[in-house]
Amino acid sequence: MAEPFSVRVTVRGYETDVQGHLNQAVYINYAEHARWSLLQAAGITQAGLVGRGVGPVALETTIRYKRELLAGDEVDVTCEFEWSGGKTFRIRQEVRKTDGTVAAEVIAVGGLLNLKERRLIADPDAVFKELAADLSLFGL
Fold first, then answer.
1. Which tens digits make up the pLDDT trace of 88-129?
2. 124: which residues sit within 8 A by CB, 6+ positions away?
3. Rounded to whole angstroms, how far apart are CA atoms 13 and 136?
4. Is 35 a residue whose pLDDT tops 60?
């Protein structure tokens, strides 16, 4: 199996809390950044999604914190899609230090919202297949 898609991020000082650790809410920003980076690498833009009448939505996010991150640490944030055949999909992510130490695990459940009807579409993978230039990034 190929390595998952990843993007490198450097922890910035203003993202840390009073103990000097990366603030817990920032992990969600890093995960979201990796997801949008994957979409972009696959050839999917926000404008393309809106033009198709859909938008990605987060339905659930679970974060398991494993090791601290400090200002200046460089991390790789991975992103792997898992398809169930229904209206939702899972995205498994890791935030890894450059030495391979896993700092956090993120599991998100998402879907694609029909922007006019305000309902989840039945087959989000079909939209990604239609819009993506590189389906391998989605595991499709």
1. 999 999 999 999 999 999 999 999 999 999 999 999 999 999
2. 87, 88, 89, 110, 111, 112
3. 35
4. yes
Two tokens at 89? 């999909």
Q: How far apart are CA 120 and CA 125, in angstroms?
A: 12
- Structure tokens belonging to residue 35: 């997801």
Among the listed residues 66, 3, 5, 1, the one whose alpha carbon sits nearest the alpha carbon of residue 31? 5
Run of H or E including 27: helix 26-41
State the DSSP string of 66-117.
-S--BTT-EEEEEEEEEE-SSSEEEEEEEEEETTS-EEEEEEEEEEEEETTT
- Structure confidence by residue, pLDDT tens digits, 53-93: 999 999 999 999 999 999 999 999 999 999 988 999 999 99
Query: Please, are residues 78 and 5 in contact by the beta-carbon 8 Å criterion?
Result: yes
Spatial CA neighbour of 84 closest among 30, 134, 132, 123 = 123
Query: Dihedral through CA 136, CA 2, CA 60, CA 111, nearest 10?
Result: 10
The secondary structure element, H or E, covering residue 126 is helix 124-131
Tokens of residue 30, six digits:
């890093």
